[in-house]
Design goal:
- With about 120 residues, the chain is mainly alpha-helical.
- Helix content is about 70%, strand content about 0%.
- The protein folds into two domains: about 45 residues; about 55 residues.
- The longest helix has about 50 residues.
- The protein is elongated, with a radius of gyration of 32 Å.
């Protein structure tokens, strides 16, 4: 088993699954001995076993569902691209408006005018 500063809960999924496989056929007494040898708690092993079993609960998507998800993803990517372009356009327009506003304030000051006409 790996040596980790984080302890057994910091182990990789592969290491935890290895423990689950190694302890699959053990009795409660054998599991306790196995756990003590590796500085584990039987509860940790049971939690990892349950997580391994739960990993396969999610239903597998059909080909039609996968294609629909891919279509929606492509549609979302197009929308994101369009929105980014629109944002860049608006940022440029805003920068131009700010430049005109600043210029309208500075030009009269440059010519020595008060600007409060």
């Amino acid at each position: 088993m790996p040596v980790s500063e984080k302890g057994p809960d910091g182990w990789s999924a592969t290491d935890k699954f290895t423990v689950v496989l190694e302890t699959a056929g053990l009795s409660a007494t054998e599991l306790s001995a196995y756990s003590r040898e590796r500085s584990l708690y039987p509860e940790q092993v049971e939690r990892w076993r349950q997580a391994s079993q739960d990993a396969n609960k999610k239903p597998v998507l059909t080909l039609k569902e996968q294609k629909e998800i891919e279509r929606l993803l492509a549609q979302d990517q197009k929308e994101i691209k369009r929105l980014k372009q629109e944002l860049r356009r608006k940022e440029k327009a805003l920068a131009g408006a700010v430049a005109l506003l600043i210029a309208s304030k500075k030009i009269p000051a440059f010519w020595g005018e008060d600007g409060d006409d």
